[in-house]
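Raw record, unedited: Pirin
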Amino acid sequence: MINVIPSDSRSSFDRGWLRGNHSFSFGEYQDPENTAFGPMRVANDDVIAPGRGFGAHPHSDMEIVSIVLNGKLRHEDNLGNVAVTSFGGIQRMSAGTGMIHTEHNASDTEEVRILQLWFMPYTKGLEPSYETTSFDPDALAGALVPVVSPEGGARVASIHQDMTIYLGRLAKGQTLTYEQAEDRRMYIFAIEGKLGLNGEYQLNEGDTARVEQTTSMNLDVSEDAFYMLIDLP
């Protein structure tokens, strides 16, 4: 089952210093029929104005992944972590028993665009932790590159949930097939371009698909595309 959700059905907002789209209930946007997909709770596509950001605020019992699409994102938390991440970098925060952090655009001249993804951990009460990792942007060509997984790795952030986040790019005419075990889900987001799914559906830029009861997914493109695929329980 493939449920395509058009970009214009997301909850959009513009506060001047912050604009973006929420794919699940978040903040002022509340829809009891759209609160989660498996352990996935939040998928925000945010653009932060130069020199602006989120002041100190708390989180607990949540795995939070920030993927920087362009610009520079600065993170600081009460554990003493300070990091500035640009495209090719991943920030992962396990809030566990509680963390306080800030997120700001590290540039005074350029916007920063981030995908912020929240997931329920496999257990509550974990020790809070934070890490940054980097992937090779050139490796995305014609591939699905894991950037977050339970095992982690030299270029893969670790996460306390049975799930993997992949990024990839396909050039016009290329295809790729992803296989997953039964009784799992896929969440697919067309970041740029257009992405075909199993020869039946198409994601335009900004569209997402929530996939269940489908173990094989064939991706094809009629124009160059940049995409994210998340394998979820």
